[in-house]
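Usage

Read records sequentially. Each one opens with the input sequence:
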Amino acid sequence: MPTVPLSPQWRTVATERTVLAVVHNVTAATRLFDILELFAGDPRVQIVFTCPGSSAFTDGTAEYLAARGVTTLPWDHAIRTGFDSAISASYGGDLHEIAAPLIVVPHGMGYNKFLETGNRKPYSDFPLPG
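and closes with the structure output:
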């Protein structure tokens, strides 16, 4: 799987589209790999990875990607490069700087869930039926 934009002269198969995978952390990376399998068998699509470095949970991300043979395009280079599409599993960082249409997918159970805080009653305060 190509991980940096390759000049047409270096490609063994002519690609028609380039997708930027934005990896914030290991959790987001695992979700992106699930989705990127949809493109894996299509030689017309080149996938390029980048890490914006905006997550508080970046520990292990570089190692996770390296173990899968992925090298990343530096974020500052990625935002100066045009892509046909970009996919992220997090809203973190300066995603608005990406020069491509952006798809943001949830990276796990409860992602984007609104949490109410401070206004819940303890279970024992609820009346019992009967």
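Summary fields computed downstream for this record:
- The first helix runs from residue 26 to 40.
- Strands lie at 17-22, 45-51, 73-74, 85-88, 102-104.
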